Amino acid sequence: MADRRDQLQRLIGNYKFTNARAAYRPLAQLLDARIPDLPANTIIVPIPTVSSHIRQRGYDHMLLIARHLGRLRKMPVSTALTRNTTTKQRDASRSQRISQAKAAFSCNTALDSQATYLLIDDVVTTGATMKYATQTLLDAGAGTVWVATISRQPLD
Fold it and tell me: What is the pLDDT of residue 99?
């Protein structure tokens, strides 16, 4: 994980906010280069994107990254984690982020307790999204959840 600044900030910002769809490849490659070897039974799970953002962009930015990472690692991708809310974390305070993340996720299927789930996101700020998404996977039966993000953005 790197700080979200300079070229990485521009790459992620363009990918998410100016429709630079092809950026999923280098972003997945960044994850691939930094993530250690994973157990053979690993399943990649992207943090689900708010549906209004998918409509605006024309794509689910984290699902594209997850699928490319899955191809690079020869690992399956699961969309078992779903978004319950339409709130956005951008410009929210720490307490708002935590409150929103607590209610944001559900799992639409029982998970394999023997598999390792790799939960991925593009940016971590407070860690609330990863914390509550991880808890949702564990509550659905996951035995092991690893997390990885492309960048970190301190809350200003």
Answer: 66
**Per-residue pLDDT band at 63 (split at 50, 70, 90):** very high
CA atoms lying within 13 Å on the CB side of residue 53 = 18
pLDDT tens for 1-55 read 445 456 778 888 878 788 788 889 999 999 999 999 999 999 999 999 888 888 8
Rounded to whole angstroms, how far apart are CA atoms 54 and 16? 10
pTM: 0.87
Provide the domain limits for residue 83: 2-152
* CATH classification at residue 43: 3.40.50.2020
Give the amino acid at 155: L
